[in-house]
Amino acid sequence: MLAVMQTNMGEIEDSTVRPKVTDAKGILKQNRQFLDYFWDIAKPEREIRLKAVEDLIEHLKQSEKPDELQYSLKRLVDGLSHTRDDARSGYSVALAQLLSVFEEISLKSTLDSVKEKHNLQTAKKKFIRNAAFGNFFGVLALSQSTRLHKEPQVVLECVRLLQSLSQYREHLRDLPRKTMVDILSETSKEVFEEVLLSALQSDLTSALNTPEQLELLLVALQKFPSVLKPKKLKKLLGTTAVITKENMPKLVEVLKTAARSVKKENILPPVAFDLLQVSLREDNFEMFWNEAIIKGMLSEMPGPTHYLSFRLLGACLPLLSVAQLEFVLSADVMTHYGQHMLSAQLADRFKFAPEMEKYVSEFMQGCADADKQLVVALGFTQLTNQGYPVVPSCWKDLEHMGLSALQKYVEWLMEAFCKPQLEKCLDFSTRRQKGNQETEAESDSCVARFRKWIILRLTFIGENHQIKKREDLVMKLARFIFFHAFFDVKKPTPEIPETTQALSVPIDQQTRAAISSAFYGLLQGLNTMAVLGDSAEAERRTLGVKADGSMWIYCVVQYATMLLDQSKHVQSVQTLSPEQRQGWDSMLGSVEALRKKARKSSSPEHSAFQHLFLLVGIQMFKAPEESLELLNDLRTCMEKAQAKKSKKKKANGKSSEEEPHWVEVVVEILLSLLSQPSRLTRGVCKAVFSRICPHLTQEALSSILDVLDPNKDEDESGVMVTDEKKEKKKIHKEEEERDEEEDDDVEDEDGSDSSSDDDDDDEDEAMEEGEEVDQNFRLDLMKVLQGQNALATEEDGSDEEELDDAAMMKLDGSLSALFLEQKKKIQAKKDEKDRLRKEKVLVRDFKIKVLDMVEMFLSKQGSSALVLGMVEPLLSVIENGMSSETSQQEQDFLRKAADIFRNRLCRAKYYCREINGREAELHDMLERLIGRAQKLTDSSVSLYYFSAALYLLKVLRGVVSERDSANAPSTPSELRLMGKVDVERVTTCFRNALTSFMTKRKSPLTGAMFIDLFSRFPVLCVNLLDTAVENITAGVREHQQGQACAVVLRALQSKDVKNLMSDAQSTELHQKVVDQLAKSFEDVQCKNKTVREKMVKALELCQHLVRVVHSQKLQVNLELLQKVLKSMNAEGSLQKPGQLEDTYWSVMKLFGVLKPKMEKVKKVVEAEQTEETTRKKKKKGFLPETKKRKNRKKPTVLEGKETPASTETAGGASGEEGKKKKKKKNKKRKQQGGEEEGTQNQPATKKAKTQQQQQKKKKKGGQQEADGK
């Protein structure tokens, strides 16, 4: 082999110089930019490909060089068979554009070059796929060139080539047939009749065999109906039409094949939709639907054929007439769709509902016929499963219904609610439901289910803002739902339209409860609904009012008053008592008085009070007693609030003419209502408070925050529930410990008292926990026993003396009285403890509700100046919650408060930007927050205080430039602008905090806090950098020194900090940091984890410094640092793998020192040592030296000495003995082999023991042989 290579090299050296390549066409002289076009055409990014195609065509237009044009044509044709899909499509598009622009290029020659380059006959087997794609994309490029229809012969050759490509379906699938369809759609009638019809004769004749061939026929029928007349179809198919009973079996099979072919794509095959259009043109739609779809496709098991039927149902909606829509929507396809809807509710099932909703939505958007819209909406509504429609009540397709269709649909729903005609619905039942069916009970439940769904659908129409509707329709919905929720008809009257429609089946109690809840949901939606139509109120974007300015809820209350007055015709389900009716009338009087005031001067105060009265009043139909109490509380709270405000005014020396702000009165009322445990009042308060948020004052906000303040007592905070005191807790604890022993004695004495079993069990558990015994009770018990002489003493000689019966009865009476009294004490203490616990739960629940108000205010009025007064109260809540109990409710309260503070306040997008005159106050608050953050013991609480300080800094700085919303780099002058921040004062404050963190061993502050400060406020970062750099070595512990390195690293990485510093300052800073790092690396010993972490942070800072100094060529001396770093590895201790070692060597690499490769040498040495040890070790499976054959030849070596008798005899007995010895040795060898095999299969410990035993046996055997010898 070597000789051959030498001869070859010799031939190369001796050969003559290669002749110069001639470039006749100038291909090799193309510029680089021109060649790059073809590289970009093959790139995966679509935008780059299209841009390259445009640039290539533009370049060829301007250059006008035929060589470049020919090279481009050849290069594009070659690229059609590229291995990547993106590249193939790119070259095809480029070739199509080239042929379209340069008409001098012949399509015939281009097609010939495609066939020649991608010849399927001569291509190797592994390149067949690429060649097939090359031919296909070549034809595709010709068809997209917009010139193909001008050359009929080229069209014919393209069609024939596509026909030949159909045999490569595993690679191309149905792409050739689709391209043939596209070519047909662009071909003229003359070309098709004269040229293509004969070529496509075989495909058209066998059109009923495959979906592709049928699609070709259907497209030809659609495009050239005058050519493919019934007589021509008779010759091709044997029938004059496509949709006939004779063709139906073949059509069904073709549809099934098409359905299975798109199983993964989840699309409607084009052949199915074209077949549907043909059936409509031939007026055979009903036969096609019944025979092909219902009897053919739906006869299969649920799967692709069913999904094709569903897709065909959705796609045919825009094409059908009203009668055809009614026929389709009442056929078996809808029933199967309903069954699919039920089965698809299970997990991991394919759900077709989103596709059907998309089909219906497109139909509603594109259809202007109200009758068709109504038929489709009713068709899906009447598809029911035991009375309940399978389509959800919240159906978004209704958003595109016209006003007239929606009006008719709502009227149908109301009529169906009153007189349900389930026999007209397309109802179905599952197999399990059919087995458990009961006639009468089932019919009643079906009606109830149907009514519940109708109410939900009406509610959805009323409260959905996207559905276009008029105010009269919304009011009609609200009246209908309210009437059937709370009233029954006595006698119809035209004054109340809801009474004219009699109920065929009475409304049951459960249905009425569902209607009631739906009404209040609709009412909530109306309160937040914008004004319908184009009016002045709509322009003001007021919520919850009509176009004339009246509130929706007021209109509902007026309707309710009319119903209450019409007692002859209607009757309330829950009759109101005279007191409740009086409360209702007084509520109406208050509302009317407020409306009069509002007419004189429009004020949000009147609107808020009206809303509050109306919301509480309308709840009277659901909970009359509770609502009446709320109305009474509403009035008393207003009076108390007025009295409280008047007292404050007198205390402050204000004049009696001034009145408290109306918002303060409303807030007092809301807080009083929130103290009651009711979901109803919580919803009312939330709705009202959302309206008055923009008008909140400082006093009103203070009353809210006082509730949350843990440092204020009950009177000041407004909480009516007392909290437990520490002393009271202590007394309770001592009394419980004292009483638990007594309960045990009671249980022993009186076991028949079954009512106290649970208490005794609890007391037994308390005793088991080791609590102390009540000494007072013990003394009382001792006195009773001593008084009856029932207590044994040491003086008594024997304990055999017993009390008589009278004494025993007296003793029992005294003991029972004592234990009964003790039990009452214990029960009283337990009741008190339970009461206090419940009160505490109510107080905490009340505070959680108040937190909801705080969150709503922050979300709606985050930019208000009142927000600044909420910082310290929220921090006080968080700090107190961290140190309080760990119950679940307490944790939820703390988590909610912390989330509101962090996300709604500190991280809010909108914050206060108007602080005129409050700069000194905010600076004082900032200093208080930083000071408090340093005094805390918990770092998590300190983080909240530090975040609050940064929030105040952001408020003081304000909007410096537009960079708040964009991340564009800022100029140094913009960066230095700090708004209204007293930079010197704030810098001093944070410097003290940083010094405290670096010099105190136990500081609640963390390095992450200062990193956040440095990244958000570069000006303060520049001012505090010197302090941070000094603490790289001056930190009290290694942890603080490492944090100083991390803080300095983050500052040096900031571009804003770099822009704020001059070149001289930057150089001086880098030199100072280098000196500090060199000092910190001296005599360092990585003893523990803390030191290693500090070293890692210092090395990361060092790495950044060295890289910056080298890249920017700063005048910084690094020699001392390099020397210290080298000395750190003097003993080779930093050559092991690890984070510290890797960081160290990455720094040394910047100095040009690479990590020595010592591992390979060690591996070689270890390999040599292992080889030597393996040589020394005995090989397993061999006999020891004492058992080898050479032992028997020892006598031959010892010449001149006496030989054993066994060697003298050569025959006779000696021969027999030799045979016996051989047999014995063979036996021993077999035994040894068996033992060794056994030891190989044993565990390691057992194997070692057996080997030791075998060695001992061998030694003994050798001794015995020596003794024998």
UniProtKB/TrEMBL annotation:
GO terms for cellular component: nucleolus. It comes from the Eukaryota. One of its GO terms (molecular function) is RNA binding. Residues 736-773 have a biased composition (Acidic residues). The keyword Oxidoreductase does not apply. Keywords: Nucleus. InterPro entries: ARM-type_fold, DNA_pol_V/MYBBP1A. Signal peptide: none annotated. It is found in: Nucleus. Residues 1175-1195, 1220-1231 have a biased composition (Basic residues). Residues 1239-1254 have a biased composition (Low complexity). Its main location: nucleus. The keyword Nucleus applies. Residues 709-773, 1166-1269 are annotated as: Disordered. Belongs to the MYBBP1A family. This is RPTOR independent companion of MTOR, complex 2 a. It comes from Cyprinus carpio.
